[in-house]
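Write out the 3D structure for:
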Amino acid sequence: MVAGGLSLCGLIRLLCSLLIPALFLSGVLCVCLVVLLWGVRLWIQQRKKQLTSAGKDGKQPLLVAFFHPYCNAGGGGERVLWCAIRTLQKKYRNVTCVVYTGDRGATGEEIVEGAFRRFNIKLTHPVKFVFLEKRYLVEASLYPHFTLLGQSLGSVFLGWEALLKCVPDIYIDSMGYAFTLPLFKYLGGCRVGCYVHYPTISTDMLSVVRNQDTRFNNAAFITNSPLFSKFKLAYYYFFAFMYGLVGSCSDVIMVNSSWTLNHILSLWRAGACTSIVYPPCDVQTFLDIPLEEEKSTRGYSIVSISQFRPEKDHPLQIRAFAKLLKEKRLGQQPPLKLILIGGCRNQQDEERVNNLKRLCEELGVSNDVTFRINIPFEELKRHLAEATIGLHTMWNEHFGIGVVECMAAGTVILAHSSGGPKLDIVVPYEGHTTGFLAENEDSYAETMAYILSLSPEKRLEIRENARRSVHRFSDQHFEETFLLSVEPLFK
């Protein structure tokens, strides 16, 4: 008994003798790390003084940098970028806007010209472009496994390259690379903000893995294996923790919808500096389309506008449309046509379109479904002007610019009952209906039949209500809310 007691005391003394040096060594390493980071920060600040030149009035301009590696892409995120830059240029005279981009295949002048050509956005002052060489580090194709973590770590290295080339006063991540925020805040000494289009990881993604649901981002071989599902869930929880940690570094957080707001609040826990800034939609262009009275002799067309990506769920549109025709809910109504309008970015998208065409053949609706790929804007407007229903089927769409455009163009919108369309867009306006929502094949088919059964006068009333409601998503409203949100960064 005594020997056992002595052995236990000896073990405790041994552990204590090892613990104290370990704690001391850890403390020394922490101090060295802090000194190193502080030294790097001082070096970067010195580098900033060397790189920054005075303006025409002799004063140094305020550098506001946007991290947008794909600024020449031409999507909704890019429209937000150029509208934000134009807004700051109109508001602040002493501001020089900088864009970190990996689009080395185009000059700065070509990028600005492309923004004007695609979005009709004309900047009042020149923009400084910082061209990055390591954009490949954030390409999803580089990380076949652990893609979220790989892209996020890659963005840190890309951000480091950006910081070395230009040290701004204010840094805004406008493309969703949250892991760059602490880099610019603590090493660059910048005031930092971000515009979140879509959370890199969401509580919905955690639920999908936890419930072992098969989706485009949760393969069947994982859902069929409890072990793989638990491992992926642990990985997702770890990533969500890190994502919340880096996101909370932001001084100003702007999100594009109520759906994104709810997820960012639960992950980043920074409600005091978080606000909704709806993305600017070119609603006026579509509002200029006249609302013509429907003619009973012509056929009906249902139009879908979205890129041919898996999350857009075009198969659901085709199956619901086939069900509508099969059950003959239309009776003796005029003929009906489904028109799928979208862009193909690469060979994978083209293969996806071919698979959709094969699905149409299997369901016997090939003659009733038309695919229009990469069409000119004027043709898009013509299809929308002639359409009766605008169709949207993406689950948990973060906002839904295509939904807004359909409503502004005068179609009766039928969108997925989730995400931005449900919470922000297809909502009653002044107590009146602006559109409809559905969730599955049956509810889509039933709702389409209901819309087509309405009188032309009732459909016109809904279309007019929808048009009035979309002014909330105009460029002017974006400018007002954006300036209000970023104001703390300029104080």
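The CA atoms of residues 265 and 271 lie 6 Å apart.
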